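Researcher: Next sequence.
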Amino acid sequence: MPDLLGLSDEVLLHILSYLPSIDLIQCCQMCRRLAALARDKTLTRSLDFYLETRLTPSDLKTYVNRTVRDSIQKLNLSSLYWFPAQDLRFVSSCKQLTYLNIMDTKLKLQDIEKILQTLQYLDSIAFSLETSEVESFKKVYPQIKNLAIYFRGNRSTLERSLTKVFPGLEVFRFFTLALFYLAYSLTGRWRLTYSNGKRSPPEADEPESHQSFAFVEERCCKALNSRNKSRIYGIRMTEVEFKSKASMDEMLQSVGECTNLQILILRGLIIPRGVTFFDRLLKSCPKLTSLFISMDRRPQNSFSDLAAALKQSSIQRFALTARGWLENDRVLIDSLASCDSLRMCSLVELSQAFERKFDVQRIKKIVDNNPQLQFFFLGTKSVTNADAKQINRHMTEVRKKRPFFSGLVIQLKKSAAAILKDPDYAQQAGQIPDCC
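Model: Next structure:
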């Protein structure tokens, strides 16, 4: 530390410019000189705290003093869903803001309107809003040129209504959440971009993989082969039944050629007995971060292949809806407990209750051993109400240490067929952070 502080302010500022915004806050806690440098206007013009689980409301409040507020021009607070609204309302006093992202936060419509009315230089904003609230805007904001909204609801009249509120709008983006069975899972935020009422080209700095989002429903290989595979960001396949090893090899080869694939949804998956599928799948898709699987028939093979593949992968979001996995193969749970990259996990057992006692401690390990886990859901008929309450109490205690975490274990009371036909059933059980 003495050697570091022996450097000039100019050199230290250059070093600090390579640090993410959260590390600038950490520097403020080291000494007064670094605290002053970490708040220099050259460093605070653009601050990004997107989904920063290390950030606390008190640290943010201490760092963003009046000097910092007067210098911020770009600010990203998206997905700080566990922050109380009052800890984010300081943005209305950041007078120099030109860009603001407050998606997936607790800020309400009245907070958004205050921000729009107060910040005269603001021309780009992103926020979350219910579709029904669009008509509740009380004023017109012609200064906004770029708008992005994360929403749930019918979009049919949305564009027309927003054009009245934001008459100067040049680019408008939708972000959409979709539930996958009981999985509480984000199957992908795909963007619909409009410019003067027409779909516009992607932004210059937008990753190429975000420019195409493919949902392949049937005959997956033929459908994929007709697309530019390098631009496919996500795929959804339905009724994925491999009648032979050759058909499975064809599918793996076709998916593996999607070099930017990050989201894969497999519905109605049926795998031939005795073949290795998941290990080959994850090795062929090194960028894959979200894997959602449903098997409405009892699988013919063990889940050990899936467990081994997950342990060696970088999967962040995983959802499994199937029969028999909880009864026949506990190795999957142990694998998830050791998956360091896991952020969202949803497990649904569709079988009837079985005789072996439900292993509460094994389920707890998934939550305890994954410090970055933001959401966990387990639904099964095999868990008793007493065990479910015990695990839920444990997750409540975890939330005290990790405020960004939320989780739920429930005893399923619907039949398998009814569950698979009711994708909104999960909404009755609890809330999910939008970022998951």
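Model: The chain has 18 helices and 15 strands. The radius of gyration is 24 Å.
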